[in-house]
Amino acid sequence: MVHMHITSWILGLILFFAAYFLHTGGNARVSKILHMILRVFYILIIVTGVWILLSLSNINAEYIIKGLAGLWLIASMEMILVRLKKNKPVRSFWIQLIIALVLVLLLGWRLPLGVLHM
């Protein structure tokens, strides 16, 4: 399940950047399609994350913080794409995305179920 979660995150980030750059490049129709596919990946990411969290025998605060940071990251990604379509400023959400991404990656590598412990 951890591999599925990590793969979903990687594909989600790729879809996010593809949708962002397609929209800023003027191809809003394809961007909208990718955004809808990305929303399916949000669900997959959340479901696999909750599944992993519930399967742990020793849940500590770091796992909870990583889960909340992951939700924050998903919310930032979604807000960037939605506000971009409405031609509203997205700078604050980019800052939030970077902070949440760094936090998720650092905790992901540090925790026992992280990438370095597989």
Automatic annotation (TrEMBL):
The portions of this protein that span the membrane are 6-24, 36-57, 63-81, 93-111
The way this protein sits in the membrane is described as: Multi-pass membrane protein
Q: What GO cellular-component annotations does this UniProt entry give?
A: plasma membrane
Task: Report keywords, A-Z.
Answer: Cell membrane, Membrane, Transmembrane, Transmembrane helix
Mind telling me which InterPro entries this protein's record contains? UPF0344
Question: Which compartments does it reside in?
Answer: Cell membrane
| Family statement drawn from the similarity comment of this UniProt entry | Belongs to the UPF0344 family.
What name goes with this protein? Answer: UPF0344 protein GKZ89_07780
Organism of origin is Metabacillus mangrovi
